[in-house]
Amino acid sequence: MKMLDLDTRLEFLPLTESLARACGAAILALNADSEWETWTEKELLADFPRKWDLSMLVMRDGVPAAFGICSDKGGGVMHLHHFIVGRPCSHDPESPYV
Known about the structure:
- It is built from 4 helices and 4 strands.
- By secondary structure, the protein is α+β, with helices and mostly antiparallel strands.
- It has a 4-stranded antiparallel β-sheet with strand order 1-2-3-4.
- The longest helix is centred in the first third of the chain and has 6 residues, at 17-22.
């Protein structure tokens, strides 16, 4: 099994509304192969308490690679609405993930 190249640059960023709008198509494409739950721009941009403070985006070499959408449900409870990790080696024809 091929592992993620250690030279790959990963950035862990807060997922702001402006970043979600700018990268929306690439973010949603990470979940394109899901048969049980699909999100559209409507779900991605839906407003929830503290969503833009708690949600994260992982960029790999400047391209969305993973994301987590969270919100504050009150009473010290955080809700994880959606957590997606894309295929890390899908661009590599020799990858077992293709």
